Write the structure tokens for this entry.
Amino acid sequence: MQIYLPIAEMPISVLLILAMSAAVGFISGMFGIGGGFLMTPLLIFLGIPPAVAVATVTAQIAASSMTGALTYWRRRQLDLKLGGVLVAGGLIGTALGVLAFNAIRRAGQLDALIMLSYLGLFVAIGGMMLFESLKAMLIARAGTPVRLERAGQHPAWLKLPWRVRFYRSKLYASVWPILGFAALVGFIGAVLGIGGGFIMVPALLYLFRVPTAVVVGTSLFQILMTMTAATLFHAASNQSVDIVLAILLIIGGVVGAQFGTRAARNLKGESFRLLLALLLLAVGMRFASEAVIKPDEVFSITVQGAR
Amino acid sequence: MASWAQIMACLAAVLGFWLSGPARAQELVASLSTHRVLIGSNYTGAQIAVFGSVEREGRAVGRADPYDIIVTVIGPRQQLVVREKSHHGLLWLNDAQRKFADAPSFLASMTNRTVGEMGNADDARRLQVGLRNRLLPPSSVAQADPELLRFIDALIRLKAQDKLYQEIERGVTFLTPSLFRSGIVLPATAPTGNYEVFVELVSGAVSLARQQTSFEVVQIGFEQQVAWVARNWSMTYGLVTAIMALIFGWLATVIFRRD
């Protein structure tokens, strides 16, 4: 069944879009990431103009993170206080990132920069998590239980002034490093055109030692806030949000996210980290192969605007 | 799109004009089966018939060459950049690029026989027949920059994959020695806007007459309203989309609630 998309100006298969968005929604609900780095390339591959794909995916991410965040909130696995600090930091970083994005685009090397940053981020974060989670699994098998969230063992940089107690996250830390990190993630996200959940989740896990379940819920809350703002921003600034495509993506996304949050419930902390690591590495490898293997078609067309 | 009734009506109109018209009238008459392609929610592309007739009376005595018809369709203009990847150490990165400030978003070139049969390469260039000759700027026709040609060929190859650029030799059929027809196949991805159709009558690689007409691709009903609201009420449109996303997200938790 085909339906015509009024803003993308092309028809698309309804069932294909529903299936794709359900799969990405599942991953989003399970890992507390937005999934934009998976969905956007898929839509562009189907021939949807990149500007429309990027803008419309923000609406889907808002919906699937809403459903995920609500579910974690009911399970008391969402730290609103920590989430609030992350949103505040993220907004500052995003604003700076948009300025940097325009500067880099004027310099003309945006494609290469995005590709190399993706590659670096995915391989570095994925590799680190893979190594750590495998080690944790081996130790767990040997019999000694390991916990990332060791009480009272906070590194020195969490002891800066303005310390706040985040009860749900079992965290007693200064607000400054959290704000700073959220700003950095927002900055990277704005430059690369992604939500940044896949950087935020490992950071909360490893740097701030927040329990896995709370990490996912809190990250989803932060993504919910930034993506709702992003939807408004895209609609107002470049009119490229396609509401028909958004509805299809949202329906698939929220259903998938519900199953994702359920699947995550039965997952151990170290298996969660291992799976996320494998996902990031797989995406990183795809970017790498795209850059290294000789492409079939060396030419590409970019539409810069109608006249 | 072009139903038989439309085609027959069109044919009748052209025939009527041709039969009733005075002998000294223009040598070429052409018309389309429709001048408006409407996009609704089930739009998957369109087909438009081109019909025309050639006035034999106006023909110069002694001209032995047969008539040829060239139909060219040019869609709304776009600003395009064609980039070429090249090998830098380990990586394939975008390197050389060419900007096409007003490339047609859709381009079709149809002829009744192959360009080679109609004349030599110089004739084809002069008549701007074929995709390559249409895209080359007329000034640099004689000694075209080989680098530019490479990018034009890449542009044609990529656009042709999406059927947005079409070159159909023998895409025009003479039904009688003076009546001809052709068809425009519009893929669903062809953008909205105005499409110019040029019909040129050629004999012995000399242009005898030329007629221009056009059709419009427009969205109607729901699609049109959505596009209009998105453009003119963009903040409201964004708010509605965002609120809808949040409501759908909340609904899913209610529907799937088990715990």
About this structure: Residues 4-219 of chain B form a domain with the Immunoglobulin-like fold (CATH 2.60.40.3880). Residues 146 and 152 of chain B are 10 Å apart (CA to CA).
